[in-house]
Amino acid sequence: MARDFIELKEIAREVRKDIIKMLTASGSGHPGGSLSAVEILTTLYFKEMKVNIEDPKDPERDRFVLSKGHAAPVLYSVLAEKGFFNKEELNGLRKFGSILQGHPNMNYVPGVDMSTGSLGQGISTAVGMAIAGKLDKKDYRVFSLLGDGELQEGQVWEAAMAAAQFKLDNLTAFVDFNGLQIDGRTQDVMSPEPIDKKFKAFGWHVISIDGHDFEAIINAIEEAKNTKGQPTMIVAKTIKGKGVSFMEDEASWHGSAPSKEQCEQALIEIGGEV
């Protein structure tokens, strides 16, 4: 297991490097909420999920829906590291003619299971996928990642009710609880807290963890798999901009790309090549 953690940490470091480089090249995008979710997506794609890079639409695969679609850079980086497409594609982020646009598009990007961007709709789709799995008697699992600011969308709670009503124990969702959104701190804009108690009230099994701790993430996913008759919500406490000192816990980095000089500083801190 210790070796697994070392490998996951190295992959996460590469993913963070990719995020910084691609956002610098694009001149726009969302670094803060991409960096905060690195450990979660790295664990899902390199430890947990059954995926097939040779057949991205394999009907038996596990599904992942990035409900907070603006954090596309972390998903693109992880998919590229996994081998769904060439890493050189990352240089085209948000550029005309590139497959990698500002939000994930399932029609163009291998490995993307759902086009997302309008907040609240991703978790609703994940619920639908989980219902389909039950109806088709398939054993694939569905995972989704929401932002804490996204919980301000009413559609999220309609989806939460449906997931509990239909006892979707094949659905595991994460809240990237970094406490910040584009306009500032979530508690000042429209507080979603207490997140854990709210999902419990909606009938979910809830686990609270450190979202940057690989062991905690792995254990939480295992607990979710062993939970029957309920969907599971993993409330992952994270740091927006994790890994880059001048981005950490700063709302201004929700949707601002680094300059060339800032990119160099960030890569030094992450441990990457300048």
Description:
The protein is of the alpha/beta class. It has one domain: Thiamin diphosphate (ThDP)-binding fold, Pyr/PP domains (Rossmann fold). 41% of the residues lie in helices and 12% in strands. The protein is built from ten helices and seven strands. The chain has a five-stranded parallel beta sheet with strand order 1-2-3-7-6, sandwiched between helices. Helix 1 crosses helix 3 (38-48) and helix 1 crosses helix 4 (72-82). The protein starts with a helix and ends with a helix. The mean pLDDT is 97.
At a glance:
With 274 residues, the protein is α/β, with parallel strands linked by helices. It has one domain (2-270): Thiamin diphosphate (ThDP)-binding fold, Pyr/PP domains (Rossmann fold), CATH 3.40.50.970. It has helices at residues 2-26, 32-35, 38-48, 72-82, 121-135, 154-165, 186-190, 195-201, 214-225, 260-270; strands at 63-66, 142-147, 171-177, 180-181, 184-185, 205-210, 232-237.
List the helices and strands and how they pair.
Layout: H1 2-26, H2 32-35, H3 38-48, E1 63-66, H4 72-82, H5 121-135, E2 142-147, H6 154-165, E3 171-177, E4 180-181, E5 184-185, H7 186-190, H8 195-201, E6 205-210, H9 214-225, E7 232-237, H10 260-270
| Strand fraction | 5-15%
- Helix fraction, binned, reads 40-55%
Number of helices: 10
Task: Give the N-terminus to C-terminus distance in angstroms.
Answer: 31 Å
CATH superfamily: Thiamin diphosphate (ThDP)-binding fold, Pyr/PP domains
Second CATH tier, the architecture: 3-Layer(aba) Sandwich
Low-confidence stretches: none
Number of domains: 1
What is the average per-residue confidence, as pLDDT, rounded to a whole number? 97
